[in-house]
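Closing statement on the iron/sulfur cluster sub-project.
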Amino acid sequence: MNVFILNDGCVREDALTQNLRERLKKENHSITTDYKNADILVYTTCAGTGYSIDECIKTSYCLQYYKKKTSPLIITGCLAGLVKELDFVKNRNDIKIIENKDFVVPVTNYINEENKRTTKKLSLEHATRKICNEDIFIQFMLEDGCTNKCSFCKTHYYPKKVESISYLDALTYLKEKIRNGTKIISLSGDNLTLYGIDIYKKPVLHNFIHELSEEERLKYIIVNEITAQNMYPDLLEELASNKKVVQVSLQLESASDKILKAMNRGHNLEKYDYIVRRLQEQGKIIDTVLMTGFPTETEEDLEKTINYIKERKIYVEGISGYEDFYAIPSHELEQLSNSEKRRHLMTVSEAIQKSNYEVLENTMDYSFTKESIVVGHNDKRVYLANSMTHYSIKKDLYSLPLGTIVKDQPKRIVKRIGSTINFQYRY
Ligand code: SF4
């Protein structure tokens, strides 16, 4: 069958979609981008913000409208449960809603008219996202859900209890991956700082990182979705002292204490900065995400954020514009006009583009950049990573097999477009 797959979800959904695509290909289905003529369509939705909910509903509507009448449309992902209430979905035999969080096997069951189960082994694989489509560098979703209540967050209308993958299962699985060639692991979750509180009644991320790093063939660990609010001393110590941890992603959103308070972030800049300084002293790269246009935000708040990011040399992974939604507490605050929100986003985006470049140039002096790993090939590019993934077009690097450790240090950045993966480095 020709299967059209569209993912509008987050990295977790991206990992699932990647696994779904691979599974379908193995079963001799072909993947098509032609949604009008596909035999079956799979749409993965997002419920992260009011805006993404609206967009996913519109896209679901368009797909059911343009697809062939006989081709089923499968709607899955975070919004699946909500979409089924809408008129255009009700009483339609050609629209199938799959609400399972891990939708890979249920979707293939539907396509193949089978009744297979998601085994423990499969669920671990489905939590794995390949960077550059290879196993050398993987992202692993160790945890799901968050108990915090940031005033702009989906946790108010889409609460998910914390669900951690069992320590032993995750460790055994990742060790096996390492034995089979994985050299860089990026650990992720909704709020990874909380890993373990559901199963072990206490956070255990520090132990997990420690044990994982003891695997000799593993070269680098990246730790994502860490919150200052939930940081605990053992974790900070492990992140700082573990030589294999090269990068920590610490959500900031804003460097203005007034805005952090209105966001109900549970920390102020001083607490955040204490963590950043402790990690940077030990040579770790810090990256973050920012939000602009939050209600009551002023030019002064923006300036604080831009200056702080520049001063601390923090890499900004993403900037989101605040989107209001009736179901979040920040809806009650005085909102900025759309034009003000756009202006704030542009101001910060322009400043950050420049500071990100400077941060990346600065990281070239870090000790771990002396050893990069070949993590993928594409056209005439070879992708390399230690923490940030970048590419080179140098011919003798291009011919190196995956997993090779390159001991040359990059000299400078020669081209930059968008995300780090699109930065060309000169070796
Ligand atoms: S820490 Fe992150 S996931 Fe948790 S409530 Fe805040 S924004 Fe949402």
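The chain has a mean pLDDT of 94. With this model delivered, the sub-project is considered complete and its resources will be redirected to Aim 3.
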